[in-house]
Structure formats: structure tokens, C-alpha cells
Amino acid sequence: MKADPTAQAKLVTLAEVDAEIGRLTHRRSTLPELAQLDEAEQRVRAARDALVRAETRAGDLDRDIARLERDIDGVRARTERDHTLLAGSGISAKQATELQHELDTLARRQGVLEDEQLGIMEEREAVGIELDHARGELSEAETALGEVTAKRESAEGDIDATRAGRDRARTEVVAALPADLLADYERIRAGGRVAAGQLRESRCGACRLELDRTFLGQVRTAAADEVVHCEECGAILVRGK
Prior knowledge:
By secondary structure, the protein is mainly alpha-helical. It has five helices and four strands. Pfam families: CT398_CC (PF24481), Zn_ribbon_9 (PF02591).
């Protein structure tokens, strides 16, 4: 392949721009803010899970307390009715004995229910403290997540702005290259290699390796418009600069 030496020289600039674009891409994908964001998101998820558990437990205890309150109210109503009946006239001694027995049973039942309710209320108080703590943890975690998200977006924005400038520079260089020369460059670059490098003395600017003397002799005697490739890495060797 042949190409004007001036066009070949532009490949060095293109390779430098591509290298910088590659560094920017790598930097964007390895931002420390990304790891911080992942940790912050995990913390938020954990805080939300803890809050849900506390809310669920609090809800269960509130229902238990309400159920016991209804049961106690029922016992109190039954006790009040029995006291009214016992204090009334016209009941037999047997009925009075039965009512008194029922009142004793109701008193014991009320005591059991009230003790159970007290225990649950104490547990509910502890869960309430846990609930407040879980809400505070979630609030802090969400605040931290927002801060890290803003930092990541700022860092990505800076990189993207620089990348946009490099993309424009690449477009300008590419537009000035012959199609066949550019195709050769892109073919090499597609293999994940540096596609062009300046020949400096006896070293390839792409792979930095010292080149064989015989090969160098062939390169130096080749026509200026001849496109030559490094025998070590296959990159286009740009001469005459």
C-alpha cells in the first residue's frame, strides 16, 4: 500500500488521540466513585430492609396490643355485668355462688391478659427505639448515596467533556486520511493493538521494541510513500519525522 508521507504522519496523532480516548474510557469505568456508589447503595438497601423488619415487628406488636385491649375490655364488661347481677335482688344463693366463681375467674383472666399486654408494650417500646434508629440509619444512608451520586456524576461529566474534545479531534484527523490507509489502521486497532507509531532511530513507537537491523535497512530503503509495518507488533511505522 502507498500513502502520502504527510497522511502517514497524521497516524501518529491519531494513535495518540486513540490512546487518550482509551485512557479516558478506562478511567470512567474505574472511577473510585463507582465503588463508593455500590457501597452506598448496599448500605441503603440494608437500611431499608432493617426498617421494613422493624416496621413489620412494630405492626405485629400493635395488633397484639389492640387484640389484648379488646379482650381486656370484654373481660371488664363481663365483670361489670356480673357485679351488677350480684348486687341485684332476686338471685338465688346458687346463682350468687356461680357469679362469684365467674368473677374470680374473670379477675384471674384479666390479670393474665394485662400481664401479657404489659410485656408486649415493653417489647413495643424497645422496637420503637429500634424503629427510630432504623429510620435515622436510612436517612443517613440516603444522604450519603446522594452525595456519592453527585460526585460520580461530576467526575463522569468532566471525563465526558474531555472525551468529547478528543472525539472531535479524532474526527478531524480521520477526515484528512485516505480511506485505504485509515482502513489499514482500523484493522490493526481492532485487534486491541496500538495501530501506528513513529520510527525513532531503531525503535518502533508503538511497541517500543528495538527492531532488527536487516528489517530497518529495508524500511529505510523503501519509498517514502510506501506504508510499512513493524515486524514485531504489526503497527504502521511512520517515518521521516
